[in-house]
Amino acid sequence: MIKMEQLSLARQVDMVFRELDDELSGLDSGIVFLQIRNNVVGKFGIRHYPVESRGGRMQAAEAGLNAQQRSSFRSVALEALQLKQKWTHGEISYEFAVRQGMIVVDTTIESNYNMANLMIRYPKHHTYQEAKTESS
Length: 136
Fold this sequence. Notes:
The chain has 136 residues and is of the alpha+beta class. The protein is built from five helices and six strands; from the N terminus they run ααββββαββαα. The protein has helices at 9-19, 21-24, 67-80, 115-121, 128-135; strands at residues 29-37, 40-47, 51-54, 57-60, 90-99, 102-111.
C-alpha cells in the first residue's frame, strides 16, 4: 500500500480535485482549501456560499461547474503549486466563481511555521536581553 508521503504534492492535489469533482459539479462559487503538513495534504474541503443575494432577493446558487470548468480549475490548482517554495506546512486556498460562463480562480498560499520547532533546531545562543544589548 502506498503511503501519502510517498506521493508528490501535485499528485495529492490531483487526487483532492478528483475526490471533490461531484461536489464541484453542484457549486458555482466557493473556496477549495488544502491543509498541508510535511508536504502531505491532511484536511481538505470546500467552503461555499449556498445562498446568494442578488438585487435584494435571496436565491439558491445556479448550476455548478461543468466538466470543462472543473478540468480547468484542477489545472490552475496544479500550476499554482509551482509558486509554493521551501515550506512544508501551511494552507492553500483556491477561491473560485463562474463569471460570464468562465471560471475565475484566485489562489492564496499560506506557509506556517512553529516556534517550538525552531527552539529545538537552534540551540540557545543568546537570551533576549543579550540580543537586545548587542543590537544597541
